[in-house]
Design goal:
With 929 residues, this protein is of the alpha+beta class. Among the domains are: 150 residues, C2 domain (Immunoglobulin-like, Sandwich); 131 residues, no CATH class; 106 residues, Immunoglobulin-like (Sandwich), CATH 2.60.40.10; 130 residues, Sandwich (Immunoglobulin-like); 132 residues, no CATH class. Helices cover 15% and strands 28% of the residues. Strands 2, 3, 6, 7, 8 and 9 form a six-stranded antiparallel sheet that branches. Strand 20 and strand 21 form a beta hairpin. It is rod-shaped. GO terms for molecular function: metallopeptidase activity.
């Protein structure tokens, strides 16, 4: 028997703590062969030791090999010391076994009068005092000169080398806590009174301490912290025969509520809207009355040793808060510091989740457990792909061969209800995306359940014990296929990968955790590193239900009236469940909605449907016709309906003709009015069959022969039954943006008196594509008649027959505008203009009716045209009175009406009176100015 071993105890509150003395060398200082310790003729000593712990029976070790002056026996004795013992006394006595006489005593103490080496171990700090002042070393006796306790016979001195464990710096399990701290607690001021206890610490099992606080309404559900601690307790980590890790989630206190808090390196202004406001306080004050910080317990903050307690916890405790929401992160599940050297701060932010989101994650408690374990894993140096053997965080997400809650595929149970709440326990085969063997089993035996991977961005499942169709394209299978198997944006955008040549390694998580976070760059207060997106409640909804999408395109994004537009609707399901009772509704911009029942849509599946509608001719140019598609199905929660509808726009192109009319604002009777008619196609499509018609009112005369405008001349001039005149132009097709101007002149009759108005109206008719017709566009312009003061010297018809010089073209044009009966009087064809020959023919020898009256009428209009008299000039004669004529205009109109009647006996008197009335006017005797 070389030593005595004491079995380890479970990680509970310790009532005792082990203390071990190991003697690893004993040797003679004074001569001890044939003299001294051994008598004459005797050989070297046969060493053994008697070890005494105060309060315990002494222990005699086995004998070392016989006849040795120095031995290395490796004697051990472990005692479990009650934790109420502050100082433990230990004695070591070295003996020499003699078979023929009593055993001899070696002097191992430097103190006179003592043979046994005596030590005292402080059971709070692990310090050693007495004959040896360190936890390991050698002590030799003084040989008791003068006999001492051995009487007159001095005893030879021996040296004993020993080790006391645990020593004051021992950390048996390597978790960063000294053994004495784990057994007793921490005494900061050296008064042997523990100031801080580590609950349930175990010096032989790694311990992790995490303080958990929560906002009002966000306290962890019952059993959540215990469930996560249980995961660590069952971890496949064996250290000195103890399995698991002691995770101590200390449920502490409720914090002030905030709708959202920020967890970034930029501390936000204001109180309690930032992680560091809650942890460090606003203003930062950790201890004493008025403390504002929440890291540490209320008892810690009130403790006189608060500053030292806080420093200790800051070096050893991680800190997590269950919050309502994370600033700028919507319904994200949480966030933690992520670094190769781990981190110490994290949040669980599930307060904004609703029942549908929690249901998809297996319930609120399950969601809290998974998120807490996930975020805590980040602070332990794990990325979404775990951790490389070289200690670098693996950030490749959604790896099919990495079955851990750190992987978004398995963080929640939504994709695999049977997935364990755990980190990856053992590594699996590395997958090379550009060298995947679809003909053999992939070596993923540690998996339970199914392998989940991506094909075309969508989730695909396979049996891990069978060959896997990584490409998803079926047979023939390839021994060197290439596939982007961790590209699964249906899970989360962080699972989007553009590479198909990644090396997807799968290392065990539990063997690679980082316990000491003080080497992390995020250990400093206020330093949290870049924001790392996490799984959101919307991701869970999408994975746990159907998530239908609708997209729509039209074959005509530009169209005209009468065009047929075909809409193609693509319906898809990007969720994790099939959609049933799927209905697609298409609503065209004109007409009623069209509804179609679709077959069930599987995850990742899409289908297309086509619909048509006809653009109405009434659709205005530049307007947008919107086609809408909407898809519904089950099960799909309200939170994912935002992309269930889609629209497509068709811009309408139609002609749009505008016309304007400008006219001379005022003219004297008989003078030319200039009309400018402008038209333009302000639409974006050509106008077809355009026809411009200008209508001149009665009393306004037009002839192409007298037209002084720039043109173009009308293609048709029609005198209507109501004495209006229609002028027509036919521009035909008018391109978009094109237009033209028509300028012409027309003359008002000399019978128009001052103040009278005439209005010219333009009407532009046109059509478009596919036989569409549009309402004509119109415009008008008004001219007011003015009057020239008369010259009062009218001429007789006989005089006008001689005065060719006074019969100017302008004078004759005014006459033509007033009465067209003289045009063609010389036997020529009437051409719309009055010539000298035609005037002379009318005035030549007017001896019989109706020639006489015609000649006098012509003379009267010539006198009006030369402004000697006006239509409004008053007339007073017996004849005028008898005929009821008050003005020259009345007389002219009466004459025109007379000439419309046959000159027979029945009208002889009328012709005679009318001729006399006009002769009196032309002779100047009828006018009264």
């Amino acid at each position: 028997m070389l030593g005595l071993f004491i079995a380890s105890t479970p990680a509970t509150a310790a009532s005792t703590q082990p203390l071990t003395v190991r003697i690893f060398r004993v040797s003679c200082v004074d001569p001890c062969r044939n003299t001294g310790l051994e008598s004459s003729t005797e050989s070297a000593p046969d060493f053994y030791a008697i070890i005494g712990f105060a309060g315990f029976d002494s222990y005699t070790t086995p004998r070392a090999p016989d006849d040795q002056e120095a031995v290395t026996p490796d004697w051990k004795l472990t005692r479990r010391i009650p934790t109420d013992v502050v100082e433990q006394d230990i004695s070591v006595l070295i003996m020499d076994y003699d078979s023929t006489s009593p055993d001899d005593v070696g002097d191992a103490s430097p103190r006179p009068g003592n043979a046994a080496a005596k030590l005292t171990v402080n059971m709070v700090h692990g310090t050693v005092k007495g004959d040896m002042t360190s936890s390991a070393g050698c002590v030799a006796g003084n040989g008791e000169p003068g006999g001492g306790i051995f009487g007159a016979d001095p005893q030879p001195a021996v040296q004993v080398c020993l080790e006391i464990t645990p020593n004051e710096a021992s950390d048996t399990d390597g978790d960063g806590f000294k053994d004495y701290e784990e057994y007793r607690g921490v005494d900061f001021n050296g008064d042997n009174v523990v100031d801080l206890t580590l609950p349930d610490a175990d010096a032989e099992q790694r311990d992790l301490y995490v303080e958990i606080d929560w906002m009002r309404g966000e306290k962890p559900q019952d059993g959540v912290l215990a469930a996560v601690s249980k995961v660590f307790n069952a971890a496949p980590v064996i250290d000195r025969g103890v399995t698991g890790i002691g995770l101590h989630l200390i449920e502490d206190e409720e914090l002030p509520y905030a709708e959202s808090i920020d967890l970034s390196d930029d501390r936000q202004a204001g109180a309690y809207d930032d992680f560091d406001d809650l942890k460090l306080g606003v203003p930062a004050r950790a201890c004493g009355p008025g403390a504002t910080a929440h890291f540490g317990t209320a008892a810690d903050r009130a403790n006189p040793m608060c500053d030292k307690i806080m420093l200790f916890k800051r070096l050893h405790y991680r800190y997590g808060i269950f919050i309502h929401g994370l600033t700028g992160a919507g319904v994200t599940s949480g966030r933690a510091e992520v670094n190769d050297r781990g981190g110490n701060d994290f949040v669980v932010s599930l307060g904004r989740w609703d029942d549908a989101r929690f249901s998809g994650a297996g319930g609120r408690a399950a969601a809290e457990q998974a998120t807490l374990l996930h975020e805590l894993g980040h602070t332990l140096g794990l990325g979404h792909g775990g951790r490389y053997i070289n200690g670098v965080v693996d950030r490749i997400n959604c790896k099919p061969n990495y079955r851990s809650v750190m992987n978004y595929i398995w963080q929640f149970t939504v994709n695999d209800p049977d997935r364990p709440l755990d980190y990856q326990r053992q590594g699996t085969e590395t997958l090379l995306e550009n060298d995947l063997d679809e003909t053999k089993k992939p070596g993923l035996k540690p998996f339970s359940g199914q392998v989940i991977y991506g094909v075309g961005g969508h989730i695909r499942r396979a049996d891990p014990t069978e060959a896997i169709d990584w490409t998803g394209d079926g047979k023939p299978y390839s021994a060197d296929a290439t596939a982007n198997i961790n590209d699964i944006p249906d899970v989360d955008p962080d699972c989007t990968s553009s590479k198909s040549d990644e090396r997807l390694v799968s290392n065990p998580d539990w063997d690679n955790l980082v316990y000491d976070f003080t080497g992390s760059p995020y250990f400093s207060d206020g330093a949290h590193g870049p924001i790392v997106p996490e799984l959101t409640g919307d991701d869970v909804l999408r994975m746990s239900s159907a998530d239908l999408t609708a997209a729509i395109t039209v074959d005509r994004v530009d169209a005209g009236g009468g065009d047929t537009v075909t809409a193609t609707v693509t319906a898809g399901n990007k969720g994790g469940r099939a959609s049933t009772a799927t209905v697609l509704t298409f609503t065209p911009p004109v007409g009623g909605p069209v509804t179609r029942q679709l077959a069930d849509l599987q995850p990742g599946q899409t289908t297309t449907e086509t619909f048509t509608f006809t653009v109405p001719c009434t659709a205005g140019d530049g307007t947008t016709l919107t086609s809408t598609a909407k898809i519904t199905g089950t099960p799909e929660p309200d939170e994912t309906l935002t992309d269930n509808s889609a629209t497509a726009a068709t811009k309408i192109h139609a002609p749009n003709l505008a016309v304007t009319v400008a006219a001379t604002p005022s003219v004297n009777a008989g003078e030319a009015i200039t009309y400018t008619v402008a038209y333009r196609n302000t639409g974006s499509a050509p106008a077809t069959g355009a026809a411009l018609t200008t209508t001149l009112p009665a009393g306004l005369y037009y002839s192409q022969a007298l037209d002084q405008g720039a043109g173009p001349r009308p293609s048709a001039v029609i005198r209507n039954d109501d004495d209006t005149t229609s002028l027509t132009w036919k521009p035909g097709t008018i391109a978009a943006g094109a237009g033209a101007t028509v300028t012409f002149t027309a003359r008002p009759t000399l019978l128009m008196e001052a103040g009278a108005t005439v209005t010219g109206t333009a009407n532009l008719a046109y059509g478009g594509t596919n036989g569409c017709a549009f309402a004509p566009t119109t415009a008008s312009a008004q001219t007011t008649a003015t009057e020239v003061t008369p010259g009062r010297q009218p001429l007789l018809s006989t005089v006008w027959a001689l005065r060719h010089d006074l019969r100017t073209a302008e004078t004759l044009a005014r006459v033509q505008a007033t009465d067209t009966r003289f045009d063609g009087a010389d036997g020529t064809t009437a051409d719309g203009v009055l010539s000298q020959q035609e005037v002379s023919a009318v005035l030549f020898l007017p001896v019989t009716q109706p020639r006489t009256l015609r000649a006098e009428l012509l003379a009267t209009t010539l006198n009006m045209a030369t402004r000697q008299i006006n239509a409004a000039t008053q007339v007073h004669t017996i004849t005028a009175g008898r005929l009821g004529l008050d003005t020259v205009g009345d007389a002219v109109r009466y004459a025109q009406a007379t000439l419309a009647q046959p000159p027979g006996l029945s009208n002889l008197i009328r012709y005679t009176d009318t001729t006399l009335a006009l002769t009196e006017i032309n002779s100047g005797i009828a006018e009264h100015y």
